[in-house]
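Table S7 (text form). Paired inputs.
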Amino acid sequence: MHMIQGTTERRASRRFPTHLEGRISHADHPFVIDCVVRDLSETGVRIALSEPGEIPLEFDLEIPDQGASATVRLVWTNGTELGGMFV
Protein backbone atom coordinates (compact mmCIF):
# COMPACT_ATOMS: atom_id res chain seq x y z
CA MET A 1 0.00 0.00 0.00
CA HIS A 2 1.11 3.55 -0.66
CA MET A 3 0.94 6.39 1.83
CA ILE A 4 -0.49 9.72 0.68
CA GLN A 5 -0.45 12.63 3.13
CA GLY A 6 -0.79 10.34 6.13
CA THR A 7 -3.56 8.16 4.69
CA THR A 8 -3.29 4.63 3.41
CA GLU A 9 -3.71 4.27 -0.35
CA ARG A 10 -5.86 1.16 -0.93
CA ARG A 11 -5.75 1.02 -4.72
CA ALA A 12 -3.92 -1.90 -6.28
CA SER A 13 -2.75 0.16 -9.26
CA ARG A 14 -1.76 3.75 -9.96
CA ARG A 15 -4.46 6.28 -10.93
CA PHE A 16 -4.07 8.57 -13.93
CA PRO A 17 -5.97 11.89 -13.95
CA THR A 18 -8.24 12.32 -16.98
CA HIS A 19 -11.05 14.53 -18.23
CA LEU A 20 -12.90 12.24 -20.62
CA GLU A 21 -16.57 12.43 -21.54
CA GLY A 22 -18.39 9.20 -20.76
CA ARG A 23 -21.81 7.58 -20.68
CA ILE A 24 -23.25 5.26 -18.06
CA SER A 25 -25.92 2.77 -19.09
CA HIS A 26 -27.46 -0.51 -17.96
CA ALA A 27 -29.27 -3.12 -20.05
CA ASP A 28 -32.16 -3.43 -17.55
CA HIS A 29 -32.77 0.32 -17.23
CA PRO A 30 -33.79 2.69 -20.05
CA PHE A 31 -31.37 5.47 -19.18
CA VAL A 32 -28.06 6.93 -20.26
CA ILE A 33 -26.23 9.27 -17.89
CA ASP A 34 -23.57 11.61 -19.22
CA CYS A 35 -20.52 11.81 -16.99
CA VAL A 36 -16.87 12.83 -16.86
CA VAL A 37 -14.19 10.24 -16.15
CA ARG A 38 -11.88 12.01 -13.65
CA ASP A 39 -9.29 9.30 -13.29
CA LEU A 40 -8.50 5.78 -14.45
CA SER A 41 -6.36 2.91 -13.27
CA GLU A 42 -5.90 -0.63 -14.51
CA THR A 43 -8.53 -1.78 -12.02
CA GLY A 44 -11.01 1.08 -11.67
CA VAL A 45 -12.35 4.53 -12.36
CA ARG A 46 -13.55 7.72 -10.65
CA ILE A 47 -16.51 9.39 -12.35
CA ALA A 48 -18.16 12.80 -11.84
CA LEU A 49 -21.88 13.28 -12.49
CA SER A 50 -23.47 16.61 -13.37
CA GLU A 51 -26.25 15.94 -10.85
CA PRO A 52 -26.97 13.24 -8.25
CA GLY A 53 -28.77 10.19 -9.55
CA GLU A 54 -29.39 6.52 -8.91
CA ILE A 55 -26.60 4.36 -10.25
CA PRO A 56 -27.01 0.57 -10.37
CA LEU A 57 -24.47 -1.59 -8.54
CA GLU A 58 -23.14 -2.75 -11.92
CA PHE A 59 -23.24 -0.68 -15.10
CA ASP A 60 -21.67 -0.18 -18.50
CA LEU A 61 -19.30 2.74 -18.99
CA GLU A 62 -18.54 3.98 -22.49
CA ILE A 63 -15.85 6.53 -23.37
CA PRO A 64 -16.71 7.33 -27.01
CA ASP A 65 -13.66 9.49 -27.81
CA GLN A 66 -11.38 6.61 -26.80
CA GLY A 67 -13.51 3.88 -28.38
CA ALA A 68 -13.54 2.20 -24.96
CA SER A 69 -16.20 0.50 -22.90
CA ALA A 70 -16.21 -1.60 -19.74
CA THR A 71 -18.49 -3.09 -17.15
CA VAL A 72 -18.02 -1.37 -13.79
CA ARG A 73 -19.09 -2.35 -10.26
CA LEU A 74 -19.96 0.57 -7.98
CA VAL A 75 -17.67 0.74 -4.93
CA TRP A 76 -18.54 4.15 -3.43
CA THR A 77 -20.51 7.29 -4.18
CA ASN A 78 -21.07 10.67 -2.55
CA GLY A 79 -23.94 11.62 -4.84
CA THR A 80 -22.07 13.54 -7.53
CA GLU A 81 -18.93 11.39 -7.74
CA LEU A 82 -18.50 7.66 -7.73
CA GLY A 83 -15.73 5.13 -7.73
CA GLY A 84 -15.94 1.76 -9.39
CA MET A 85 -13.87 -1.27 -10.19
CA PHE A 86 -13.74 -2.93 -13.58
CA VAL A 87 -15.50 -6.30 -13.71
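Next pair, protein 2 of 2.
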Amino acid sequence: MMVWYWVIGILSFLLGVVAGFYLAVQYMKKQMANMQMSEAEIQAMARSMGRNLNKKQLAQITRQMKNVNEKNKQSLFKKKK
Protein backbone atom coordinates (compact mmCIF):
# COMPACT_ATOMS: atom_id res chain seq x y z
CA MET A 1 0.00 0.00 0.00
CA MET A 2 2.84 2.39 0.82
CA VAL A 3 4.43 1.67 -2.56
CA TRP A 4 1.55 3.34 -4.40
CA TYR A 5 2.18 6.61 -2.57
CA TRP A 6 5.76 6.59 -3.83
CA VAL A 7 4.76 5.65 -7.38
CA ILE A 8 2.06 8.34 -7.55
CA GLY A 9 4.45 10.89 -6.05
CA ILE A 10 7.24 10.12 -8.52
CA LEU A 11 4.87 10.12 -11.51
CA SER A 12 3.34 13.43 -10.40
CA PHE A 13 6.81 14.93 -10.04
CA LEU A 14 7.88 13.77 -13.51
CA LEU A 15 4.66 15.04 -15.07
CA GLY A 16 5.18 18.41 -13.38
CA VAL A 17 8.76 18.65 -14.64
CA VAL A 18 7.76 17.85 -18.23
CA ALA A 19 4.79 20.25 -18.18
CA GLY A 20 6.89 22.99 -16.57
CA PHE A 21 9.65 22.60 -19.15
CA TYR A 22 7.15 22.76 -22.03
CA LEU A 23 5.47 25.88 -20.64
CA ALA A 24 8.83 27.55 -20.01
CA VAL A 25 9.94 26.93 -23.62
CA GLN A 26 6.68 28.35 -24.98
CA TYR A 27 6.98 31.41 -22.73
CA MET A 28 10.58 32.06 -23.80
CA LYS A 29 9.67 31.74 -27.50
CA LYS A 30 6.93 34.32 -27.03
CA GLN A 31 9.25 36.67 -25.13
CA MET A 32 12.01 36.37 -27.75
CA ALA A 33 9.54 37.11 -30.55
CA ASN A 34 8.43 40.29 -28.79
CA MET A 35 11.92 41.47 -27.88
CA GLN A 36 12.69 45.02 -29.00
CA MET A 37 15.86 47.04 -28.53
CA SER A 38 16.08 50.79 -28.90
CA GLU A 39 18.89 52.42 -30.86
CA ALA A 40 20.45 53.61 -27.59
CA GLU A 41 20.55 50.02 -26.28
CA ILE A 42 22.09 48.76 -29.52
CA GLN A 43 24.69 51.54 -29.41
CA ALA A 44 25.51 50.73 -25.76
CA MET A 45 25.88 47.03 -26.56
CA ALA A 46 28.19 47.82 -29.49
CA ARG A 47 30.31 50.10 -27.30
CA SER A 48 30.60 47.39 -24.66
CA MET A 49 32.06 45.16 -27.39
CA GLY A 50 34.52 47.84 -28.42
CA ARG A 51 32.68 49.06 -31.54
CA ASN A 52 31.37 52.51 -32.36
CA LEU A 53 28.51 52.44 -34.86
CA ASN A 54 27.72 55.31 -37.17
CA LYS A 55 24.12 56.26 -38.00
CA LYS A 56 24.01 54.16 -41.16
CA GLN A 57 25.24 51.02 -39.38
CA LEU A 58 22.85 51.63 -36.49
CA ALA A 59 19.88 52.00 -38.87
CA GLN A 60 20.91 48.82 -40.71
CA ILE A 61 21.13 46.78 -37.49
CA THR A 62 17.79 48.14 -36.29
CA ARG A 63 16.16 47.22 -39.61
CA GLN A 64 17.67 43.71 -39.53
CA MET A 65 16.44 43.12 -35.97
CA LYS A 66 12.96 44.28 -36.93
CA ASN A 67 12.90 41.89 -39.91
CA VAL A 68 14.06 38.97 -37.77
CA ASN A 69 11.42 39.75 -35.13
CA GLU A 70 8.69 39.83 -37.77
CA LYS A 71 9.80 36.46 -39.18
CA ASN A 72 9.93 34.97 -35.68
CA LYS A 73 6.42 36.18 -34.90
CA GLN A 74 5.08 34.71 -38.13
CA SER A 75 6.75 31.34 -37.61
CA LEU A 76 5.82 31.22 -33.93
CA PHE A 77 2.11 31.58 -34.56
CA LYS A 78 1.89 29.41 -37.69
CA LYS A 79 0.08 26.13 -37.38
CA LYS A 80 2.43 23.19 -37.41
CA LYS A 81 1.66 20.46 -39.92
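The mean pLDDT is 85.
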